[in-house]
Design brief:
This protein is about 55% helix and about 0% strand. It is mainly alpha-helical and about 60 residues long.
């Protein structure tokens, strides 16, 4: 299966943020993940970025841009 450009960009952005040690929370204590494995942070960041993008697209579609 071929990834779309947007999906690939999202994966790259999440990987870069995770490797840079960036987190969607301002402190690690706020993270509610019980089990952390190598892909946990990247997956979490990817989902967060995707939700932010969807919200922005929804906002633009409603004319509030």
């Amino acid at each position: 299966m071929v990834d779309s450009v947007e999906k690939r960009a999202l994966k790259i952005a999440a990987a870069v943020m995770q490797r840079a040690g960036l987190c969607r929370y301002d402190s690690y204590e706020k993270c509610r993940k019980i089990f952390v494995y190598p892909g946990t942070c990247e997956k979490c960041i990817r989902n967060w970025l995707l939700n932010k993008a969807r919200a922005e697209l929804k906002r633009e579609a409603s004319g509030d841009a």
